[in-house]
Amino acid sequence: MNAQPDKIKIIGLSGSLRKNGLTKHAINIALTGAKQMGADTTLIELRNYELVFCHGNEQEEAYPDDVHRLRKEVKSAHGILLGTPEYHGSYSGVLKNALDLMSFAELEGKMIGLIGVSGGSMGAISALASLRGIGRALHAWVIPQQVAIPEVDNVFAANGAIKDPQIESRLLALGNQVAKFSFLHHSNTAQQFLSEWEHAPANPGGTYTK
Question: With a threshold of 0.90, does the pTM exceed it?
Answer without folding.
Answer: no
